[in-house]
Amino acid sequence: MNKHFLGDTTVLTGRSLRHIARSPDTIITTAIMPIAFMLLFVYVFGGAIQTGSDKYVNYLLPGILLITIASGISYTAFRLFLDLQGGIFERFQSMPIARSSVLWAHVLTSLVANLISLVVVVLVALLMGFRSGAGVLGWLAVAGILVLFTLALTWIAVIPGLTAKSVDGASAFAYPLIFLPFISSAFVPTDTMPGPVRAFAEHQPVTSIVNAVRDLFTQQPVDSDIWTALAWCVGILVVAYLFANVSYRRKIS
């Protein structure tokens, strides 16, 4: 690893964060759709959905947080694609910087931007009546899971950002990820679903992550869901990281 990796990554991350600071509508846009879903489901459909929770917003929020992340990572692919098309990568290659710092700068920028969006969504949920009895450790555990999930999806986003042929292609991959929570335990218990749908919902990553976050929020005993959630996050992160780096090496070779 280049000895200047940390310094180069810090400088390039600062560059990317300044771009976001100049266009805060990116973060606002990322948060708007999840907030709209939360308002719709709580105030329109919430009365008809039986979850066993005293407040539907308490049941709903973990899934909304994952949708927020899935919405936000599409901008990583978008920004990466624009840098490639604008010749920024060629300019960086002519400079004595760590090659991997270019990708890590985009990934860390995504992490910061998504954390801000998540805070905005949680604040809106609090205004809507969300309450959690979780202590500091519980909130830190939730934050850790969400950070891992963000990193995993962001490295997935790097791949189309490097390989897409158009701006639309770079960001369109996020749509299936945004709708994956709808076929999970995010909005309704999985035992209310038909057989094949239930089987898929119970064995896809979003359900275990949502269940783990929900248990932490409600101070329920954390069972195997948290280990399954961590395994999914780490597994996706490792595989996506490897594929992203292969794509990057091919792009700059």
From TrEMBL:
Keywords: Antibiotic resistance, Cell membrane, Membrane, Transmembrane, Transmembrane helix, Transport. Residues 25-251 form the ABC transmembrane type-2 domain. One of its GO terms (molecular function) is ABC-type transporter activity. It is found in: Cell membrane; Membrane. Signal peptide: none annotated. One of its GO terms (biological process) is response to antibiotic. The chain crosses the membrane at residues 27-49, 61-82, 103-130, 136-158, 226-244. It comes from the Bacteria. PROSITE patterns: ABC_TM2. GO terms for cellular component: ATP-binding cassette (ABC) transporter complex. Pfam families: ABC2_membrane (PF01061). The keyword Transport applies. It is a multi-pass membrane protein. InterPro entries: ABC2_TM (IPR013525), ABC2_TM_bact-type (IPR047817), ABC_2_transport (IPR000412), Nod_factor_ABC_transporter (IPR051784). The keyword Membrane applies. PANTHER family: NODULATION PROTEIN J (PTHR43229). Belongs to the ABC-2 integral membrane protein family. This is Transport permease protein. It comes from Kribbella caucasensis.
